[in-house]
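W.,

You were right to be curious about this one. When I first looked at the sequence I had no strong expectations either way, so I just let the prediction run and decided to look at it fresh. Below is the sequence, 440 residues in total, followed by the output.
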Amino acid sequence: MDLILKLGGLLCIGGMAVVASVPFFRRPLGAAVAVLVVYLFEVWLYDLPPIQLGVLLYPPDILFGLLLVATLVRYGSGTAKLPITGWCIPLLFVLFSVSLLRGISAFGIQGAGVEGRNSFYFIVGLLYFSSFNYTRKNLRSIIRLLLACSTVMVAIAIIRWIAGFAGLDASLKWVGSGDSDIRVLYAWQALFLSLGFFASLFLNISRQGPIWQRNLFYVLGPIILLLQHRTVWAVMIVGILWLGLHDGRFRKKAIGAIIGMAIVGIVAGAFMFGHRSEIIAESLQNSSTNDDTLMWRVEGWYELIFNNPTRNTFDDIIGQPYGTGYERIISGGKIDYSPHNYYVETFLRLGIIGLLLLLRLYALGIQRLKSLPMQVNRYAYPDARFWALALVLQFVYFCTYGAPYVQSIFIGVAIAGFRLKRPRPAPQKLDVPEAPCSPA
């Protein structure tokens, strides 16, 4: 009887999940709005409140669970089709599921779930958002959402700076530590702003979109600089160099755009931080020259890969169970949390197979999108190279951080662009003259 009740409960929960996910079956923009709303709440609150349902569930847990249900229904009904090389994503999800189930068996739901939570968000997001065919109108709406969210985040950063410098820091805490730290957003949030920066820059170069969208990068660039996340600085430098090599329009206009951005940054910085200029200068200098954090991370990666007693040949192939932990000794101290490198994390949890799938997905995606012929590229918005650049930025960011769930929207859309083709012209109706009326 107890087993029947449990099965009935599971069926009820599954049915409710299917019903709740109905709005996401054919509406990726609605799902993108839902993810971005949750994301903005997290930006503002720093930590989203959990929901107690036997286990602690957070809003992204529920949202991406519904996206997974919608994705399974889409593929099960034949509505969705994998893009070119998109088969890498289902295989990543299979490897993730195997590691998660092994982890639940060995360490329980909480131990495995907490460690696998962020990978679940990211992989499910890729699986969902890459399953649609996007029109130019859809892409325009997604870029509009990206830039609108970036604008809200700029407002949040400015509010926190003003509150902090005015001594009203009681409820608006800093991300970093120390009186001179002006990091009011996390690195993964600054990465989001960098994607908005390049989207605005593309619109400016190609003269598309409203004026505020075309010129938003003048604001986003200085904001990203002041946030002092060196990984994001490196990501943007790589992005600028990559664009310079592959887009002649960018080379022609980049110098003027960067000078204009620098002028805006100096004026805005003097206005906001003029009375704290020496602190800002000292903080920026320390962020750009201090390599202690990087060396600390490299030492941790070495320990996890080469001095990890939990590794074995089988796990190296398909990955260790989630919940195994990332315990290592660095500088004489023992720590046990994420390795701050998604490639190391993927190798440890999804094995060499998962790592190769991830690298293949990004490498082929970048190559495919940047080489689309012009007659096909014009059906993308703002440009197919922008979506290739989104993959480049994420590819570099993975070197020192994990996978942010919000990025799964844009990476999934970029992957869907693998199958971008020139639309077939609509059949034209022949003008057949009407037969003359016969006389009565």
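Here's what jumped out at me. The chain has one domain: 14-419. And, maybe more interesting for your project: The CA atoms of residues 222 and 266 lie 8 Å apart.

Coffee later to discuss?

I.
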